[in-house]
């Protein structure tokens, strides 16, 4: 599943979900690299 995370205050990364971490962050994979950050909230309720 594709997920978006924020790293710092101005950088976002979108990649394939790898795993949840105990502190609420998630890990995503982009090509051969993995990134850890806070997940971006989904707004599925606003899609009409």
Low-confidence stretches: none
Number of strands: 4
Tally of helical segments: 0
Order of strands across the biggest sheet? 1-2-3-4
Give the averaged pLDDT, no decimals.
91
What proportion of the residues is helical, as a percent range?
Answer: under 10%
Largest sheet: 4 strands, antiparallel, barrel
CA distance, first residue to last residue: 22 Å
| Fraction of residues in β-strands | over 45%
Description:
The chain is built from no helices and 4 strands. The chain has 48 residues and is mainly beta. A 4-stranded antiparallel barrel has the order 1-2-3-4. The protein starts with a strand and ends in a 9-residue tail after the last strand. Helix content is 0%, strand content 58%. The chain has one domain (2-42). The mean pLDDT is 91. β1 (2-7) and β2 (11-20) form a beta hairpin.
Give the SSE layout.
Blueprint: E1 2-7, E2 11-20, E3 26-30, E4 33-39
Antiparallel strand pairs: 1-2, 1-4, 2-3, 3-4
Labels describing this entry:
58% strand; single chain; 48 residues; mainly beta; four-stranded antiparallel beta barrel
Give a brief rundown of this model.
This protein has 48 residues and is mainly beta. The chain has one domain.
